[in-house]
Amino acid sequence: MRLSIWVVLLGLWSCQEVSNSNTTSRYYKVDSLISAQQVALYTNNAALEKKAYIGADSAVVTFTPDSVQWQDELNILKKADISNPTLDGIYVSEITDDPNSNLTVRTTSTDKVDAEVKFFKLYYLERVGELRKFEAMWEEKNPLNSSQKIVTLFFEDIHDQVLLKSYKIKGTQKMILQDTVKFEITGTIKY
Predict the structure, then answer these.
(1) pLDDT one-digit tens code per residue, 59-93
(2) DSSP 3-state of 162
(3) Is the pLDDT of residue 28 over 90?
(4) Which of 8, 101, 113, 173 has the highest CB neighbour number within 10 Å of its CB?
(5) Residue 10 lies inside a defined structural domain of this protein
(6) How many structural domains comprise the chain?
(7) What is the 8-class DSSP label of residue 89?
């Protein structure tokens, strides 16, 4: 009786290990990048100057976010994460030299119409850990609205860390029975 219980437990354990090994992804983990930046921004007591242009309206605000506010500011960027195992195989990556700088560009993109994230690009020096720029585009469509966003993040070496220096979110949103609205949000971080 005890032997059969151990066999069942061993079988369940081995299935669990196989299941966990399939959850790794070959794509860059954007959510990990954003989470690390949120912690670093809060730890460094960084201030944010944020400008928003929505249609004909605009606003500017400067403040020093706490940890929750940094999450609120940057969580939208986690939408560019494609490291979910269900997306494995629908994106292709290509590495090229940026013709406008000394950076290497790793472009990950798809031609699948129903994929929300259309592409993201990592601009870096020698290795991805020396990230200088991140760019992504995603589209959302449902019966009530559609939107497209292009997000660009700029990084610099600050305090011996690669830290977010500024960002831009630019796009359009179309609500049912309404005109398309253009928007742009920029953030500049001061350490």
Answers:
(1) 999 999 999 999 999 988 888 788 777 777 889 99
(2) strand
(3) no
(4) 173
(5) no
(6) 1
(7) T
Q: Cα torsion at 185, 66, 82, 131 (round to 10°)? A: 80
What is the rounded CA–CA span in Å between residue 57 and residue 183?
9
Does residue 79 fall inside a structural domain?
Answer: yes
Phi/psi class of residue 155: alpha, beta or left (left: φ > 0; alpha: ψ in -120 to 50)?
beta
Q: Which two tokens stand for residue 17?
A: 């290990």
For 112, residues 6+ apart whose C-beta sits below 8 A from its C-beta are: 90
Are 86 and 57 in contact by the 8 Å Cβ rule? The answer is no
User: Is residue 80 a contact partner of residue 153, using CB atoms and an 8 Å limit?
Assistant: no
The one-letter amino acid code at 171 reads: G
Tokens of 11: 């079988």
Q: Which pTM does this prediction carry? A: 0.80
Contact (Cβ atoms closer than 8 angstroms) between residue 58 and residue 184: no
End-to-end CA, the chain: 64
Greater confidence (15 vs 170) lies with: 170
Whether 172 and 183 have beta carbons less than 8 Å apart is answered as yes
Owning domain of residue 48: 27-190
Tokens read off for 55: 């249609």
42/181 Cα distance (integer angstroms): 32
* Domain assignment present for 159: yes
Look up residue 54 and give its amino acid: I
